[in-house]
Specification:
The protein contains seven helices and ten strands. With 247 residues, it is of the alpha/beta class. It has a single domain, classed as 3-Layer(aba) Sandwich (Rossmann fold). The protein starts with a strand and ends in a 9-residue tail after the last strand.
Length: 247
């Protein structure tokens, strides 16, 4: 576990993207392909702006999986993670990806959809996952108490109220009853299977979660605390999100 505290959110975004881009280049050099996972949300926008502009990456050899998606939300909705990744990443790349496997949150049976994307991911090894930490300490949509044991790549999860309130804070929805109560999420164990993790966490509203995740005991009530156990997890914070750290 490595922690980098940057002076500004823009510097944080640049450093995180630069780190992740370097991991992608290594994968391409070693096996002529790279597999990555991307989070969506306000915390990732700056990082993605830099990642799409990273030089010397043959995106035609890169496969992308999403971390999660809401159940019952159309891909036309502004909060759809499928729409988010298409508009902020896929369509901005200089060339087409080798593969992009979004989750369809509108499928009648979300469990079957989770199984579908799980089967696709089971064929791959994640070289780098770009993740964040939620206000309630979640990673992807694994809210507390998170399932640290399941080996399935994707699962259907319930969203707790604090997680749903965060989506209002970030401006994706206006009212709580508009926020879906379920999502399809990459599992904790699948995230932890990534060779490298780049965790981008700006803003003061994440300070409490950051402190509990990085300095507290590893426990399911703070899902991001398990990242302490990953050998190659790098946290990129700004002064505000790092403000509660004691070390």
């Amino acid at each position: 576990m490595e922690i980098t505290v940057c002076d500004t959110p823009e510097e944080l975004a640049h450093c995180a993207a630069e780190d992740g881009a370097a991991r992608i280049r290594v994968a391409l050099e070693e096996r002529d392909r790279a597999v990555i996972a991307l989070a969506a949300g306000r915390s990732q926008i700056g990082m993605l702006n830099h990642l799409v502009a990273a030089p010397d990456i043959d995106w035609g050899k890169v496969i992308v999986f999403p971390l999660d998606e809401y159940v019952g939300l159309s891909s036309k909705h502004p909060a759809s993670f499928r729409r988010y990744l298409v508009e902020r990443f896929v369509e901005r790349l200089p060339s087409s990806l080798r593969g992009f496997y979004p989750i369809d949150g509108m499928k009648e049976d979300p469990v079957n959809e989770a199984v579908r994307v799980s089967r696709l991911l089971q064929k791959e090894t994640l070289d780098v996952s770009f993740i964040g930490i939620g206000e309630n300490g979640h990673i992807a949509f694994n809210d507390p108490p998170a399932d640290f044991d399941t080996e399935v790549p994707y699962l259907v999860v319930d969203l707790d109220e604090r997680c749903r309130q965060q989506q209002i804070h970030e401006g994706w929805f206006e009212e709580l009853d508009e926020v879906p109560e379920e999502a399809i999420s990459m599992s904790v164990r699948q995230i932890m299977s990534s060779k490298h993790l780049v965790c981008t966490v700006p803003e003061a509203r994440k300070a409490e979660a950051v402190q509990r995740a990085l300095e507290g005991k590893v426990n399911a009530q703070v899902p991001a605390s398990i990242l302490q156990e990953h050998e190659h997890c790098r946290f990129y914070l700004d002064k505000e999100s790092a403000a509660s750290l004691k070390a």
